[in-house]
Amino acid sequence: MKNKMLCLVTVLTIITACKDGEQTHVAANTGDPSAGKSIYEGAEITDEHDKEIDELIAKMTLEEKVGMLHGYSMFTNQGVERLGIPKVNMADGPLGIREELQRDSWAPKGVDTDFATYFPAGGGLSATWNPELAHTFGKSIGEEARARDKDILLAPAFNIIRTPLGGRTFEYMTEDPYLNKKLVVPYVVGVQENNVAACIKHYAANNQETNRGTVDVLMDERTLREIYLPAFQAAVTEGKAYSVMGAYNKFRGEYICENSYMLNDILRGEWDFRGFVISDWDAVHSTVKTLESGMDLEMGTNAPFDKFWLAQPLIDAVKAGKISEAEVDNHVKRILRVMYHLKAIDDKDRVKGSINTDAHFKDAYAIASESVILLKNTENLLPLKIDGLKSIAVIGANATKKNAQGGFGAGVKTKREVTPLDALKAKLPKSVTINYAKGYEEGFVPNPKSADQNYGRATIDTPNEKMIAEAVAAAMKSDVAIIFAGSNRDYESEASDRKDLHLPFGQEELIARVKAANPKTIIVMIAGAPFDLNKTEQNTSALVWSWYNGSEGGNALADVLLGNVNPSGKLPWTMPKKLSDSPAHATNSFPGGASVTYEEGVLVGYRWFDTKNITPLYPFGYGLSYTTFQMANAKTDKKSYSADETITLTLDLKNTGKTDGKEVVQVYSSKTNSKVERAAKELRSFKKVLTKAGGTEKVTLSIPVKELAYYDTAAKGWMVEPGNYTFKIGNSSRDIKQEVTLAIK
Ligand code: BGC
């Protein structure tokens, strides 16, 4: 076979392509992202109840059927009481089970039965790099959903972080598709173990809040398949997610909720999705086209509910012969199948769930304590030395800030949110005096152009001299100062992207002045997205990163500062030195206007930085520990593999310090002389490993060769290119400790 011709021979799901005597293996369209399945696998929705479902549908009037397909309150459809079909009960996610709202507005219902555990936001979960904790998260929040009688949890949210400015960066997971899928699958499985459906969101390409309701997202097919879809695909094919939320934006000219390519062809056709699609709130724009494109349940805000696209207009369309009743039945059936599967209809032994329990607070703590990242500790100010410590200055609004609620969008009403100051007070010996000063005011200028105060708000950045003076005084009279700086959920919010990366509220000035007053100053950032930390980083020897980290966030953070927990969090995205270094900005392709074209293609996040040799402030995967590690003796079990084999990579991880600690071994692949543009490094495997002080652990990683595939647009499939690959093994995308080269036949 010569050059451009591919000879495709299908062998089960593997297609073998021959080119110039070489063989290239293509996993069929269910492809690469489901290679290397995790140990977590969801239970498939079956046809078991189809007969009953068909009988029920036969008894339903057209009006009753239509009542199943649109919102009839903010978070339910109508159900059919007469036939014993309950409403589908939904709740936001992802931070916990949202409080109950009024039937037809975003105002709280004002009851006292809707408290819940506040779980760490997505950034915190992904910084753990720990799939087991993602499962814990899902299981725990799923139990809470059941206890509140929910059928659907509108979570997890995991769109790829394309720009550091993205308003929802704090609730999403990462810039990397592999890390994303490895966390999302166990999360979904955990939720669904509780007879609750996860609603994976926001499918798809909802990577910015600017113009999210109208923007037409354009990207090439390879980028879609390799970067933006893998976690959705894995959540469906492995996690067996029972529902999917259709995003607000358009994709290649069509709204996602009327995008047959995304819903019918990919989601159902290629991935065999058996659940139902719920629109994001007010993301539907038509009746017939929406249903025919594969969308099932229209949710929204703008009551009256009977005016929704899939309400009276649908009844009219059926009566006018514009859409068949059989098509309507189809969508009703999808919803009923899930409801039966969740035991929502026949609920004899349905999971009961539990909420606000100690066990759930413990889960939230476990996640938070593995998410805190030590960014710098050059003078070993951390962990705090308690012996002889008499006083400590605790400075910053974030020492006392609560983040369970705030900004636009879903929060949690919780009875428990431990702040850093609460935790330090409880954990420090009584002999230590805490000198607290707020240090800065979180001030905003309301946006005069919008009725919604959260859209495009500017911050007040003039340093507050009085507060700085108080902070300086507190620092001067204390042995050590800790500044709890950063952002908050009013500033990082759904529905608006940030304008830039500046550290708001005059905090840089505060940090510089406190540091001048007391050289032993530690900076703790509490935020969910990258900030410009250039000056702050220069100004300090100790820098820690924490998140909107749930009910136990303060306890987890204090335990890291005090050395009760050895930090093991790793950045789930790149912290750039400047915004213009980031791919979407370097290519001038954010935020677009009516449309946005993802010009950087597959080079998202560190893929861009590492390929273009741009040094970030902190790289993807980065995070220090109170101990030190060495990696040695990396080797693969063979030198050469075929496409359907799995590579076993082993190495020794030695803890060379005096403290037990967890390190994340990260494996990136690198392929030179590829026929397609490849990133310099692509994450292919990782493992978080606990190693005792002075001890060595043998680490084994299994990497299916199919993970190395790229998406071949012409062949519409995943190609494993033969040739040499180098595995770069380290503890961030930039700290590579070991290299192994192997061949793919
Ligand atoms: C958000 C979704 C959320 C829905 C319901 C939308 O604005 O994009 O994530 O689930 O509102 O609150």
What do you see in this structure?
Helix 5 links the parallel strand 5 (152-154) and strand 6. The chain is built from 19 helices and 30 strands. Helix 4 packs antiparallel against helix 12 (358-369) and helix 14 runs parallel beside helix 15 (507-517). It is an alpha/beta fold and 745 residues long. It is 24% helix and 21% strand. The strands form seven sheets. Strands 12-19-18-17-13-14 form a six-stranded mixed sheet, sandwiched between helices. The longest helix is centred in the N-terminal third of the chain and has 17 residues, at 131-147. It starts with 6 loop residues before the first strand and ends with a strand. The protein binds beta-D-glucopyranose. Beta-D-glucopyranose is lined by residues 92, 154, 201, 280-281, 409-410.
What distinguishing features does this structure have?
745 residues, alpha/beta, 5-stranded antiparallel β-sheet, disordered N terminus, binds beta-D-glucopyranose
In short:
By secondary structure, the protein is α/β, with parallel strands linked by helices. Helices cover 24% and strands 21% of the residues.
Secondary structure tally, helices:
19
Unreliable runs, pLDDT <50, ≥5 residues? Answer: 1-34
Percent range for β-strand residues: 15-25%
In round numbers, the mean pLDDT is 93
Characterize the main sheet. Answer: 6 strands, mixed
Assembly type of the shown chains?
Answer: single chain
* Distinct bound molecules: beta-D-glucopyranose
Tally the beta strands.
30
**Helicity range:** 10-25%
